[in-house]
């Protein structure tokens, strides 16, 4: 190899050796070196084909290299490189109008990363608490949940319960209280504090091994927050944009005309946090959405974006050169138009492409798996209590999701989140057709079955 950055490794092993030699060891990936991808398939350097059952943790829900999204990105990149927020540009306003109307909110603040969106939502909640709720200065508190994952900034890891995220990185930002996830009683007790500004929660915990809460938990939590005059802050960076089979996991404003299978349970968050799939993975785009005062809403809970409307001030104290760049709205708009690619945009069962629930599929064929809640298309694979322990990991000769025979019995366990109650983490790309899905799930079924022998 030479010093030319354009030089490509000749083999997967060479690529892995280069990363280990020159890259920081902040990840421990599976031993597969992806070189190209299209739709639901990925190929490694040697040309072996794989099904993508991680979809970049929901960033490429619609599949790799979607021509409409890539085309919008290319077209915009050739027109204008970057505009700072010192100027208006011709793309930001139309994008803001599109995304707010699409999700049913009054205002949006676009950014780049999911962690940045979470940080901004925290700022908004605190500012709202001081200016509207009347919390004493410096006393605002944000409630978060155990086994959360909202990003990796210093503030966010400060309320993580993962020792790998907190060890050696303190001191951390105060003003957060961690309560058990999926525990209404704990939330009720925490909301007794009048200084609570917001409740930051994932509708489904992703990094914790895809932890799906009990039926009604999100709805009860939202009702409790409303009664306590606390902002309900939904982090849908991973679950948003059709990941769970609906437009949002908390969707209360989807355009399905009330036909969604869980419409009666959905709610509208006070602060909605989006990222990843909002641009189809081709460019880092995130957003925080909320409502203005007025429009028949209660002033104490709906003036949560009043600080964004004060002339002459940076919006909620947040400003950066790339927050209004022209390239980001380019891929985001066609991506939002493709939450269910190739079909009507409405997230109604009849209008979706073939949807897959890995837990349902495997539970039907392997009764030792817990039967899942079918409405979720992002989920773990779990075992019943009392089952025999897993075998030791098989040598890393094959990847479990390869389209050719051969399965790594340990790879599924290595994909697990850290939550002890959960299993393998599955994010299948949503553009699978029926034939490809049957083939992929047969391979995965063999892998999972072998792990329980």
Shape: globular
Helix amount: 25-40%
Unreliable runs, pLDDT <50, ≥5 residues?
Answer: 306-316, 340-376, 383-422
Termini separation: 44 Å
Rg from alpha-carbon coordinates: 22 Å
Strand order of the largest sheet: 4-10-9-8-7-5-6
Instruction: Tell me about the largest β-sheet.
Output: 7 strands, mixed
Structural class: alpha/beta
Mean pLDDT: 75
Structure annotation, total helices: 14
Explain this structure to me?
28% of the residues lie in helices and 11% in strands. By secondary structure, it is an alpha/beta fold. A seven-stranded mixed sheet has the order 4-10-9-8-7-5-6, sandwiched between helices. Strands 1-2-3 form a three-stranded antiparallel sheet, with no helix packed on it. The protein is globular, with a radius of gyration of 22 Å. Mean pLDDT is 75; it is low at 306-316, 340-376 and 383-422.
Can you give me a brief rundown of this structure?
The chain is an alpha/beta fold.
Question: Which properties best describe this structure?
Answer:
single chain, 453 residues, alpha/beta, three-stranded antiparallel β-sheet, 14 helices, 12 strands, 28% helix, 11% strand, globular
């Amino acid at each position: 190899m030479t010093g030319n950055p354009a030089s490509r490794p000749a083999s997967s092993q060479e690529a892995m050796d280069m990363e280990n030699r020159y890259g920081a060891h902040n990840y421990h990936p599976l031993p597969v070196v992806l070189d190209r991808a299209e739709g639901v398939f990925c190929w490694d350097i040697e040309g072996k084909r794989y099904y993508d059952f991680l979809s970049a943790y929901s960033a490429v829900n619609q599949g790799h290299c979607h021509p409409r999204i890539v085309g919008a990105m290319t077209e915009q990149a050739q027109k204008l490189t970057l505009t700072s927020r010192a100027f208006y540009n011709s793309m930001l306003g139309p994008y803001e109008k599109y995304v707010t109307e699409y999700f049913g909110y009054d205002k949006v603040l676009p950014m780049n990363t999911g962690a940045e969106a979470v940080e901004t939502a925290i700022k908004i909640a605190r500012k709202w608490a001081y200016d509207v709720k009347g919390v004493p200065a410096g006393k605002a508190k944000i409630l978060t949940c155990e086994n959360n994952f909202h990003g990796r900034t210093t503030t966010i890891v400060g309320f993580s319960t993962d020792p790998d995220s907190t060890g050696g990185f303190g001191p951390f930002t105060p003003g957060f209280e961690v309560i058990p996830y999926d525990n209404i009683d704990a939330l009720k007790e925490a909301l007794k504090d009048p200084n609570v500004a917001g409740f930051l929660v994932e509708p489904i915990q992703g990094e914790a091994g895809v932890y799906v809460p009990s039926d009604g938990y999100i709805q009860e939590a939202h009702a409790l927050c409303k009664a306590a005059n606390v902002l309900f802050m939904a982090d849908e960076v991973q679950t948003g944009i059709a990941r769970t089979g609906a437009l949002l996991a908390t969707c209360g404003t989807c355009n399905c005309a009330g036909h969604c299978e869980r419409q009666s349970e959905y709610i509208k968050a006070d602060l909605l946090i989006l990222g990843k799939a909002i641009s189809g993975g081709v460019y880092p785009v995130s957003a925080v959405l909320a409502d203005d005062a007025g429009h028949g809403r209660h002033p104490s809970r709906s003036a949560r974006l009043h600080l964004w409307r004060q002339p002459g001030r940076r919006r909620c104290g947040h400003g950066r050169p790339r927050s209004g760049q022209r390239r980001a709205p380019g891929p985001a708009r066609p991506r939002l138009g493709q939450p269910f690619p190739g079909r009507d945009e409405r997230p109604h069962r009849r209008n979706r492409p073939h949807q897959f629930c890995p837990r349902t599929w495997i539970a039907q064929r392997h009764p030792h798996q817990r039967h899942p809640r079918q409405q979720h298309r992002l989920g773990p694979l779990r075992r019943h209590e009392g089952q025999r322990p897993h075998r030791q990991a098989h040598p890393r000769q094959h990847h479990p999701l390869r389209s050719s025979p051969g399965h790594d019995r340990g790879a599924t366990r290595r994909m697990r989140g850290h939550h002890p109650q959960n299993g393998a983490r599955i994010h299948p790309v949503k553009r699978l057709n029926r034939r490809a899905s049957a083939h992929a799930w047969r391979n995965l079924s063999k892998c999972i079955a072998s792990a329980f022998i």
